[in-house]
Structures
1.
Amino acid sequence: GIQVEQSPPDLILQEGANSTLRCNFSDSVNNLQWFHQNPWGQLINLFYIPSGTKQNGRLSATTVATERYSLLYISSSQTTDSGVYVCAAETGANSKLTFGKGITLSVRP
Amino acid sequence: DGGITQSPKYLFRKEGQNVTLSCEQNLNHDAMYWYRQDPGQGLRLIYYSQIVNDFQKGDIAEGYSVSREKKESFPLTVTSAQKNPTAFYLCASSIGDLILAGNTIYFGEGSWLTVV
């Protein structure tokens, strides 16, 4: 099945800094989503982005499907951005999302 | 408010006992899913259901059982046959098959199960 790798595994930022989180996948994707897992464990949807670029406030995401990666950009980071960022992909073959291990982001005041 | 409700949030179970985790959604979604999360690992699919009265095994179904008698409900039973049940369990739903363009998955708040 598809492999989903996220990097870096951990990231520490000072408040106000920008960051780029990466998600590599091993096969062409039909569905790709980014989530933010809050400290209580809930996954909050950020983007549905199997291709192209989207922006939502300080967050934006780009998926280059032909090169099999997706990037999540966080600008002017805030302490509330802390948590785990997870990407998940589905190839169109079996209706199942495969999840990466996540990137733990800590934003310090 | 529309959403996915999981209960209980925290559950302790003695070894050898079965336990059932509840998942209810009022989003009118056809598809529902159960995932397990362990430290340092990505979410793994336990069971999923695309329609009422039908469900499929995921990647780690051994030791678990589900039912889908109503569209809005998808309870998960962790049986005594599950060798390592202590984990964080997440229920999710989507309007339809994730193969279809635009279908996104939404998660409940999760349930922490500890075997003592």
2.
Amino acid sequence: SAVISQKPSRDICQRGTSLTIQCQVDSQVTMMFWYRQQPGQSLTLIATANQGSEATYESGFVIDKFPISRPNLTFSTLTVSNMSPEDSSIYLCSAGRDRGTEAFFGQGTRLTVV
Amino acid sequence: AQTVTQSQPEMSVQEAETVTLSCTYDTSESNYYLFWYKQPPSRQMILVIRQEAYKQQNATENRFSVNFQKAAKSFSLKISDSQLGDTAMYFCAFVDSGYALNFGKGTSLLVTP
């Protein structure tokens, strides 16, 4: 298994500012992902964080708004840039070792933009 | 586009009873993986059970079992002897040609005393 530490657990931010969320895995993983979850809703994939290269973004998500870094096999960051109230959501980090195996999740970051 | 459909937004069951959560999916791949994840109020996503599509035998994990009907693209979760701690949001998900999970909208399960 793997344990994922995600920071911060929650934050309240002013519109127009940026927030960087950190995700640390306690062991090496192959894949890391970032999801967004509106309260009471499903998880939507934002992007796949690729080590040493640009992240792969899903339709509707762009690098300028959600820049992602993954400098090594156990760490990734997601930045939510130029925030608006519509960005208020829960952001979750996930990691896995092989396709089709168990995916591990952080406890999420609850972001409120005011 | 690959989709996962959970047709029951909310369900309720009494403690010690059995409940079945439904899930259907759509994929053109022949090799894929199916999952049920549980998300309690703590927000922590927890794997409940996993099924490999090429295995005909239904997966079981203690009180949790699945009914996997590949031809019908159906993957339901049965929870036996329901416990108060089973109260959570349950997400059906699958992985086919990619690596990331595709999630359904979830079923909110409430277990009552």
